[in-house]
Amino acid sequence: MRRLFEPLDYQIDTTTIPLDPTFPQWGASRYFGVTLTATVRVRDLLEHLFVLLPVLDDDKHYWVGADEVDNLLRRGSDWLGTHPDRELITRRYLRHDPRL
Fold first, then answer.
1. Dihedral (CA of 33, 38, 43, 47) sign
2. Assigned CATH for 2-93
3. What number of other Cβ atoms are within 10 A of residue 67's Cβ?
4. Rounded distance, CA 21 to CA 2, Å?
């Protein structure tokens, strides 16, 4: 989370989520509650989320083709080129497909 969002000037607050609140002894789940804070245009926020949510998941659930390259270029045109993890973002967004 921090690697992806902090270079875009987001502040991040994460909290662990219990596997089951009824049984705290089971420990934490693999998911987190996340609060992003930033002063950005709504358009920029939506474009960041459009690209970075699938990157966090690292497993798109649909076929990825050349049109996804166009989406990535369009949605990331203002910020992706200067992001320190642009290669990680690109690789995950395009489902690790080296042809793309």
1. negative
2. 3.30.1610.20
3. 9
4. 26
